[in-house]
Amino acid sequence: MIIDGSKCKLVGKIKVPGDKSISHRAVILGSIAKGLTVIENILISEDVIKTIDAFKNMGVNIEIMDEKVLIKGVGIHGLKKPNTPIYCGNSGTTMRLLSGLLVGQKFSSILTGDDSLVKRPMDRIIIPLSKMGANIKGVKNKYPPLSIKPTNILTSICYKMPVASAQVKSSILLATLYAKGTTKIIENKITRDHTERMLKLFGANIRCKGNEILMDSENELYGKKLYIPGDISSAAYFIVAALLIKGSHIIIEDVGINPTRAGILSILKKMGGNIIVFNEREINCEPIGDIEVKYSKLRGITIEEDEIGKLIDEVPIIAVAATLAEGRTIIKGVNELKYKESNRIKTITEGLSNMGAYIKILPDRMIIEGVQELKPAFLNSYDDHRIAMALSIAALTAKGSSHINKSECINISYPEFYTTLFKLLQ
Ligand SMILES: O=C(O)C1=C[C@@H](OP(=O)(O)O)[C@@H](O)[C@H](O)C1
Ligand SMILES: C=C(OP(=O)(O)O)C(=O)O
């Protein structure tokens, strides 16, 4: 993709597609619930299609009609042995959440993925699931493909999370549906709680108190009619673009603003961003609102490690904002970024440095000194959708043409990204 950053601003009202994390969870729970689940505003992107295809492969009837998905749930014990290995593509969420579900089944399964996913660590789920009695193995006990075999007994677990990860937490909770006793998960850092909220909505016996989650096994979940809030991670690119480009003024409607997820909003406000959230309400146990953003002069701040779980996928675009903020931004606790679709500390630093940004990487933190402007460059997405989108916004602020290679990886989470971006440009 070639981005021409000469003299433009973002103006208008938009919606972003449904939240990716919530879309995955809706397909998973809808498939194993009893009865019909109707999902509106679901994200249809490569990652979510992998989850949908996995359940079709296990005998679930799923119909996609525009942005609505109809699932005829088969009940907790109704899944069938898949005919082929389950291909999760680029999607860590698909692999880690499905592993939790599959260890409770009476059939064997294999989960595999693309070149990026087979390099991502799975020991973080293999360890707790094995402690529950699961029969799950990976390459060198760490990497995909994962091989899962039925086990005689799955028992509940008391697990203190060694890494801040919503995927690990969700994997354990899905296994708990099939386990004896009550599982307790203790989180020392906040991560997105979409699984807990949706399990409750579908009828699971799950209680959250402070940083502890308690959940019992389940006989049945019940199908629901759901509306998926707009994805704050997708909205983040337009929010930062509007803050950075003079004269911009946008409104993004119906965005998920779950406090365990939308940490970017308070961070950008702290940097001086003119952001107003209004029309706040709740849909299917998830907070949602409209977001108004105007061009603002940003200043550097320190982002503490505790805040990272609430904005983990937004670190690349926050780094873009920081390069053009006045002064120094320190982002602490970024280690987990190494284990995403690319090593995002490296890939975003490389791209922005090529544009003239000044970024220093220290163990577990990034230090970004603000500059007056970025210059156009040839930029590598490394096939990572978040890097492609973050660098596209950086390119929009630079006078001249930048080239972002392999930008089609945006299809992983946001196929309409460029169409919506170009619609906003004036
Ligand atoms: O649970 C989820 O839907 C996700 C959790 C996060 O991963 P981790 O759990 O590995 O932090 C996030 O980076 C990913 O995009 C989606
Ligand atoms: C890390 C991401 O997703 P996943 O872990 O599901 O591949 C992401 O969407 O930024």
* Termini Cα gap: 19 Å
Task: State which percent range the strand residues make up.
Answer: 25-35%
Number of strands: 23
Q: Numbering strands along the chain, what is their spatial order in the largest sheet?
A: 2-15-17-16
The major sheet is characterized as: 4 strands, mixed
Q: Note the overall shape.
A: globular
* Name of the top-level CATH class of the largest domain: Alpha Beta
Task: Indicate the CATH topology of the largest domain.
Answer: UDP-n-acetylglucosamine1-carboxyvinyl-transferase, Chain
Estimate percent helicity. Answer: 25-40%
Instruction: Kindly provide the radius of gyration, computed on alpha-carbon positions and rounded to a whole number of angstroms.
Output: 21 Å
At the fourth level of CATH, the homologous superfamily of the largest domain is Enolpyruvate transferase domain
How many domain units?
2
Bound molecules: shikimate-3-phosphate, phosphoenolpyruvate
Low-pLDDT parts are: none
Number of helices: 12
Structural class given helices, strands, pairing? alpha/beta
Mean pLDDT: 97
Protein name: 3-phosphoshikimate 1-carboxyvinyltransferase
Domain Enolpyruvate transferase: 9-421
GO molecular function: 3-phosphoshikimate 1-carboxyvinyltransferase activity
GO biological process, one term: chorismate biosynthetic process
